[in-house]
Design brief:
Blueprint lengths: L7 H20 L10 H34 L6 H14 L2 H11 L3 H29 L7 H17 L4 H16 L3 H18 L3
Amino acid sequence: MPKPLSPGRLEAFSDGVIAVIITIMVLELHVPGKEVSNLNGLIALAPLLTVYLLSFVQTGIYWVNHHYLVDDLDHVTHGILWANLAFLFTLSLIPFATTWIGSRGISSFSVALYAFTCVLPAITWVVLSNCICHTSGQPPAGSRIKQAISTGLYFGSIPAAYWSPKAALGMICLVAILWLLPPQKVVEQTRSFKSDKQSHSDPR
């Protein structure tokens, strides 16, 4: 009888790709030439550093929630493997848009492009989440409402960039803040684990 496909390789491959994505972004942070003073060099790099931080946090949030999602799996399907590849592909476009802002500066087009590259992994994440939840029979750690709000903010930030690029970046920052809060499911599991651990360690 054939064994089911283990999620181990999917998780390891995803971890590796996400690590490369973060590494590519940091390699784009170039030190200004000696003709520019230290302070002016930092000021010139400030927009790219800010967007790099935002991109790093967003990528990190996806990595954390990917761990929560895959943790519920005991096997993977063909659909999950391809949905995961689609998600990783769209996530890998974030360094491109980050570098674009670093090269061209904060403008309506560059921020709209950045917002568009944020929309793509949000969409593929919903697909991947649905595939995994259908297979595992478990709800996602992050609520569907939070996913819908995040995707809506990403979509809204594209036209908002032509009204105010900084406001559009603020909308994207809001999504990051929203996902920095731990999911209720994970909080409850942590409390349950601590409670069980304390009960087992109690000598009485």
